[in-house]
Structures are given as C-alpha cells and as structure tokens.
Amino acid sequence: MILIADGGSTKTTWCLVDAHGTRSLFHTEGYNPEFISTAGIIASLRQHLPATLAPKAITEVHYYGASVVTPEQVATVADGMQEVFSQARVVVGHDLLAAARALLGRQPGFAAILGTGTNSCLYDGEQITHNVDSLGYFLGDEGSGAFLGKALLRDYLRGQMPAELEASFRATYGLGRDAILDRLYNQPFPNRFVASFAKFASDHYQAPYCQQLVAEAFDLFFKNIICKYPAYEAHTFNCVGSVGYNFREVLTQAAAAHGMAVGKIISLPIDDLVSYHLDEYKNG
C-alpha cells in the first residue's frame, strides 16, 4: 500500500492506495517545517492517523509539503515520516511540485498555489525550472489567505472596516486587540491564524469592501510575482488552493487584466496527484 500526501501549512490531505487501486482519503494537520519539528510531526501523525491504518503495512510514502525546500527542511519532515512509516520508502518534496504535477501532469507550463500561503513556478514536465520567491507571509505571499487575513485584521484593529462589517467581524470572532496580538506573536502557527480570517472575506463577499480587498490582493499577486516570470503571458495560469478556487472569478479577471489566460483552477491537487503517481507505476 502507498500513501500520497499534499501538505499545506494548515492541513495535509492524504490518499491511501491499496493493492487493488482503491483510494481512501483522510486528513491531518499541516507539517510546515518552519513551524513544527520532527518530534512534533511524529506526535501529530500518531495522534491523527486513522485507527484502521497500519503504518507498518505502508510500502511507499510520497509526501509533498509547504516549505520543504532546503536539505534541513526535507530532513525534518522525512525523519518524522520514516519514524512512523518504518517499513516504507519515504520520498519528500515541495508542495509546489505537487501542484505542478497535479495541474500539468507531464506537460510544461505554469503552476501556482493560492492557499494559506502562495507560491508559483514554471515547470518543464518533470521538474520546476523557475520560481519567483513569494517571501512568505511576513514579507509577501500576496493573494494568499494569510495576506487577506492580515489586511482584514489591520483594518479591524485600526477601525477602518465599514461599521456593519466591523460589527459582524467582532461578533464572529470575539477577539480584541490583546488576544489577536498574543496569537500573532506568542502562540504557534501564526500563519494559520491570520489565514483563517480569509473565510470572512468569502462569507461577506457581497460587500464592496471585501470585493475590493480581494481584487487588490490578486492584482498585487500578479504585479509583484507572476509578472516577474519571463514571457509569463505565453503560459496559461493554472492554480491549486482554497483561496484561488473560492475566488476563482476575480482571480480570472486579475489574470486577464495582466494578459494571462486561465487554464485549470482546482481546490485540492490530491486526486490529480494520485493519478500522476499511478500512471507512473503503470508506465514502469
């Protein structure tokens, strides 16, 4: 049996494929090595794996995760996976490669992620060939859930939200300044915390304020990141992630405004990613 996983900063979606090709999905939290240690990954997996899953029965694990870039980050995740799935061959890669393989298969093109964070690349049909650094949620990640969440929190704390939305925000979350700053600066996973507020923009998207917030975020995403790729207009814009999918209409408009046609926009890459790996097995 093999496991294939798409790991974001907030959530990991897993697919178990048995000897008959039957697929079973389940979820755990995300394992971004910038925010969690090997020991934390081991503890989380042992707590959240389905009770019916026998880790020693797994022969291969293909894990793609956020911020799995440097050898140290790869080792943080791979060591945790290997400890839990002790009989498996563990292969760890970047979630951007997962996005490219899910969106493009073995065809070259452009792929992006718009979820808790953002990332993008040019892909040659096998590997990533060019990447404009999104700089993470502190300095960049334009268009992401974290970027939207930070904008909402800033306007809320500064009293710059429309009054009706401010009241709704307060009623929805019940958070004051001190509680928000404590979560941001003293608690783990601040990126998840700020990204969680993107749902507010989605739930209240009929408000002009939210429409403008999202449109400006996507405009900056293209201006600061996508337009920096060589001959970017020659490619279709393909994207995975909850933020890109939930706001796909305005994302399509932003792409068109910057001269880029839209190809495939999906919420989760896992189904296409599993198909990619199963095809790989069939083709030897």
From TrEMBL:
Matching InterPro entries: ATPase_NBD (IPR043129), Euk-type_GlcNAc_Kinase (IPR052519)
Superkingdom, natural source: Bacteria
Signal sequence interval, chain numbering: none
One Gene Ontology MF term: kinase activity
Keywords: Kinase, Transferase
Keyword Kinase: yes
CDD domains for the chain: ASKHA_NBD_PG1100-like
PANTHER family: N-ACETYL-D-GLUCOSAMINE KINASE
Name of the protein in its database record: N-acetylglucosamine kinase
Native source species: Hymenobacter polaris
